[in-house]
């Protein structure tokens, strides 16, 4: 049993949702600046 009526009432669930939204926003904002892991390896191979 939980002291919360449902997930929407739990502070941990709210924290998880906020953290997930922040992570998605950061990934979207940084995506144009990062070629990704394989792109970085390709650049190293050109050296």
What is the percent of helical residues? 55-70%
Distance between the termini: 59 Å
Structural class of the helix and strand makeup?
A: mainly alpha
Name the average pLDDT.
78
Counted by DSSP, the helix tally is 2
Shape: rod-shaped
Beta-strand fraction estimate: under 5%
Write the layout of secondary structure elements.
Blueprint: H1 11-30, H2 36-45
General description of the model:
With 47 residues, the chain is mostly helical. It is 64% helix and 0% strand. The protein is built from two helices and no strands. The N and C termini lie far apart (59 Å). The mean pLDDT is 78.
Write a concise synopsis of the structure shown.
The chain has two helices and no strands. It has 47 residues and is mainly alpha-helical.
How would you describe this structure in keywords?
mainly alpha
């Amino acid at each position: 049993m939980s002291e919360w009526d449902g997930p929407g009432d739990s502070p941990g669930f709210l924290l998880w949702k906020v953290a997930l939204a922040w992570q998605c926003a950061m990934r979207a904002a940084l995506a144009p600046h990062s070629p990704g892991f394989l792109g970085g390896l390709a650049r190293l191979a050109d050296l």
